[in-house]
Amino acid sequence: MKAAPDANFATQCIHGGLEPDPQTGSVMTPIYQTSTYAQSAPGEHKGYEYARTGNPTRTALQNNLAALEKGKFGICFSSGLSAMDAILRTLRPGDEVLASDDLYGGSYRLLTAVLGNFGLKSRFVDMRDTDQLAGHITEATKLLWIETPTNPMLNIVDIQALTDLARDRGILTCVDNTFASPYLQQPLELGADMVLHSATKYLGGHSDVVMGAVITRNEELAKKLYYLQNAVGAVPGPQDCFLVLRGIKTLHLRVQRACENARHIVEVLRQNDLVANVYYPGLASHPRHEIAAKQMRDFGGMVSFDLKEDTQEAATQVMQNTHYFTLAESLGGVESLIGHPASMTHASIPREQRLSVGLTDSLIRLSVGVEDGEDLVKDLEGALTKAMALA
Ligand SMILES: Cc1ncc(COP(=O)(O)O)c(C=O)c1O
């Protein structure tokens, strides 16, 4: 049964915005595998006319996502980037986006190489310093694009401070909440206008779907985004919506376990002689630990570290010697992944720009899964030892 609006997060994961299927009582949302719907007379239908415009499985997921992020409207897209593209299409040529300088490479590419050609201006700034950020705002600035924790440096941006600043200046804010998941962080509660998810990651949680979503409380924005969802047509299919709905039912459990495992791994990495720096917002030594503790429930399953021997070759030795950590792009699934941002997820960012934010040639990013924590620690320690022997 639909969760009460004030029900706690675990209850929202399972019941938020959801009701048994009105036709059959089916407890799990059915997969409405159809492209069109019968009409009793021209224009007379049961709320659905064509599946690009609407599909009941998608509607259920959108309602569930709205409940999880304490929003009013959820709008799903065929990928995280198509969700971002829809948000950016609400802007006009000449408008400017200020985005985090430590940003997912695909988001950077969409802002610069794709939408830059249509007159959208983007600047990439350090969002940790609110005063400095305020100095970058111009008449043209219409949107702050905030990622926190950032990918892959795990920097933390103070969401409340930025949304306060933006609201005062009449600028919209969107927080990419992919790394945290709504279990750990709820940006709308901190004043953001929109939250973006690559649902491909923690929401889906099983590395079997590509999808994106935007959640908002702002009806005017929601209307524009529903319009673009239909008018541009980057919609997810009903099977994928079902899979994400199913994934969300265990979101809280998976993220809790990933956080626990990550804590354990971080301690071990910090003591390893091969490792130069460990980046994890849960570390008391993390420069923004206190802000992370203020705005997040826990510190997540993403960990980055680099090596004293700062070369791609050294990183490759480590990554090729793990057993449970699979060398692959993506994150947020039940299985642990290991990746090399400089050559994989962030290859589209120029080297100097990468280095300026600490994204070194040997930086390794872990998406810690929900396997047994001891096994994961042994796996990483073994890979580091083998890499050291080969060096
Ligand atoms: C932080 C972040 N935002 C957005 C995206 C894009 O999502 P998708 O791959 O679903 O298009 C990703 C993908 O890795 C990501 O890591």
Give structural attributes.
14 helices, binds pyridoxal-5'-phosphate, alpha/beta, single chain, Aspartate Aminotransferase, domain 2, PyrdxlP-dep_Trfase, 391 residues, pyridoxal phosphate, globular
Would you mind describing this structure in some detail?
With 391 residues, this protein is of the alpha/beta class. It folds into 2 domains: 9-248, Aspartate Aminotransferase, domain 2; 252-390, Aspartate Aminotransferase, domain 1 (Alpha-Beta Complex). 37% of the residues lie in helices and 15% in strands. It is built from 14 helices and 12 strands. It has helices spanning 9-15, 56-68, 80-88, 105-114, 130-136, 159-168, 181-184, 219-232, 238-248, 251-270, 289-295, 312-319, 351-356, 373-390, and strands at 73-77, 96-100, 121-125, 141-147, 172-176, 194-198, 212-216, 275-279, 302-307, 326-327, 337-339, 364-367. The strands form 2 sheets. The protein has a 7-stranded mixed sheet, with helices on both faces. A 5-stranded mixed sheet has the order 8-9-12-11-10. α2 packs parallel to α9, α3 packs across α4 and α10 (251-270) packs parallel to α14. The N and C termini lie far apart (58 Å). 49% of the residues are buried. The mean pLDDT is 96. The structure holds pyridoxal-5'-phosphate. Pyridoxal-5'-phosphate (PLP) binds at residues 79-81, 104, 106-107, 147, 151, 176, 178-179, 198, 200, 210, 212.
